[in-house]
């Protein structure tokens, strides 16, 4: 009985140890981790806070559309940014 318990514990430890050996999403897609938001879906352009809320300007890596994101205590929101003529703002940098 003790051998079965020891074998089970050993197998569990081996499984837990092997979990950390995988490739991250950023490594697999060659997206740098710094400045990315949402698992590499967005790239952060600006970030600031007022002590309660955190604000970010980001852009979608696929469409280059800019978004305003707000996060705080039990509060969050996201909205696309628009030009004065009503068209979506598009990131034109590299």
Tell me what the structure shows.
This protein is of the alpha+beta class and 94 residues long. The chain has one domain. Helices cover 24% and strands 32% of the residues. It is built from 2 helices and 5 strands. It has helices at residues 2-19, 25-29; strands at 36-37, 42-49, 54-60, 66-72, 75-80. A hairpin with a 4-residue loop joins strand 2 and strand 3. The longest helix has 18 residues, at 2-19. The N and C termini lie far apart (63 Å).
What is the molecular shape?
Answer: elongated
Cα Rg? 21 Å
Q: What integer is the average pLDDT? A: 81
Q: Could you estimate the helical fraction of the residues in percent?
A: 10-25%
Q: What structural class should be given to the helix and strand makeup?
A: alpha+beta
Oligomer: single chain
Unreliable stretches (pLDDT < 50, length at least 5) are none
Distance between the termini: 63 Å
Order of the strands making up the biggest sheet: 1-2-3-4-5
Order of helices and strands: HHEEEEE
Can you summarize the main beta sheet?
A: 5 strands, antiparallel
Q: What is this structure's SSE topology?
A:
Elements: H1 2-19, H2 25-29, E1 36-37, E2 42-49, E3 54-60, E4 66-72, E5 75-80
Antiparallel strand pairs: 1-2, 2-3, 3-4, 4-5
Keywords:
elongated, 2 helices, 32% strand, 94 residues, single chain
């Amino acid at each position: 009985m003790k051998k079965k318990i020891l074998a089970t514990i050993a197998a569990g430890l081996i499984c837990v140890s092997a979990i950390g050996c995988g490739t991250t999403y950023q490594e697999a897609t060659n997206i740098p981790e710094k400045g990315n938001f949402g698992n590499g879906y967005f790239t952060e352009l600006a970030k600031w806070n007022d002590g309660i809320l955190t604000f970010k300007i980001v852009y979608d890596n696929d469409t280059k559309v800019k978004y305003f994101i707000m996060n705080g205590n039990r509060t969050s929101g996201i909205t696309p940014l628009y030009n004065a003529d009503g068209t979506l703002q598009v990131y034109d940098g590299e």
